[in-house]
# Entry
Amino acid sequence: MEKTINLTLKVWRQANATAKGAFESYEVKNISTDSSFLEMLDILNEQLINENKEPVAFDHDCREGICGMCSLYVNGRPHGPDDEVTTCQLHMRKFKDGETITIEPWRSAGFPVIKDLIVNRNAFDSIIAAGGYVSVGTGGVPDGNAMPIPKVDADEAMDAASCIGCGACVAACKNGSAMLFVSAKVSQLALLPQGKVEAARRAKNMVAKMDELGFGNCTNTGACEVECPKGVSIANIARLNREYLKAKCLD
Amino acid sequence: MGTFFSSSIGKKFVMSLSGLFLVIFLLVHLSINALLLVPDGGEMFNNAAHFMALPLIKYGLQPVLFVGFIVHIFYATMLTSINNKARGSVKYAGGNNTKDVMWASKNMYVLGITVAAFMAVHLCDYWVPLQITGNVESTTLHGTEMHDTYALVNAAFSQCWRVALYVVGALGLSLHLTHGFWSAFQTLGASNSLWRKRWTVIGTIFAWVVGVSFSLIAILQHFFYQA
# Structure
């Protein structure tokens, strides 16, 4: 049988980027524990619209954990109390009947709030634009045997590439550092032959952009990898440090 | 190279190298302290202390050590203040419920302050009388007149509160090292999934061996080496 719960939501409301925000409390009733966290917020918003109130603004898109749009700092954790899932994959069965849930936007100097629970994550796009791509011609699809790549490297590159750029690492970091994101984006290319051509330039430009945009300095606490919905490892951060030091030595 | 030292990774590179340099100093300091336990009335310890006061070490190596400390503290302060700014002005109302993050790793600056406070007392107790004022009893060993450093240390450890302070300082240092040691190698890029485990194990053992050894020497001095 379907189980339903009643909840109190403490939600951050902020009219725009410059307005002063504050928490508002809302009650939602008869929420199915099978529904997702975002479906629960949809129900809240319908309720608010019916009461002629402004719905809560939050980011979402694919709702299947691959686009990186959803965010939300739920009860003291990015993407909420479940491990290795995004907020859209978080289910209401993770909450108890009568519980008060605190919902906040990502907080960091690099991600200013735009409205309510939506933050501006353009900084990540700027970091990618600074070098997170391959600009050399890699041709058509080559024969799989023409360019042998060790399985270990292929796996690690794939793991790094699973980063969806949601920003949970920055939100979780006590230093507001974007090193896990940048290291994943550098690693996925640094491990493969196509990416090696521009490796030095990429590491330097992406780190410089990250510093310029006001992200903090990594102190290796590892909070980012604990909260990463894709389980991206901080071994990538060591690789980024290595790539960066190597690039600077070649200057 | 100019942009290297102003970059986040460059600054942390300085932190990790200065930290590892101080780790080497700790090993030297600990080995000499261990001589306090040689039951020869402090003869060996005094000889070692006398050796460490040779002009080459006093005027050559000691300034390098001071620079190491100052750089480490200066960069720590700079990075911590940048990081606090990067965290943003609004704190999370929901607090921080991220599990499996080592407490020490989130409190390195605070732990550093306790180590620095302990070091300040330490400098006043030993470095100032031994190297600045020279206000220390003398002893003659094999025809060489030298400071009776052993007597100074031994007298300090006769006081209960000093031993207690010493142990607190040493254990604060241990906690600082449990994160600092492996973190230094991570920052240098000398880590991956496998080496991270190795550095953490080596670092944790090293941290507690250093802290507990310093503490034990003080405690044993207090209970078993008082005349």
Observations:
- The beta strands of chain A are 4-13, 22-32, 73-74, 77-78, 100-104, 113-115, 118-119.
- The two ends of chain A are 66 Å apart (CA to CA).
- Chain A touches chain B through 54 residues (CB under 8 Å).
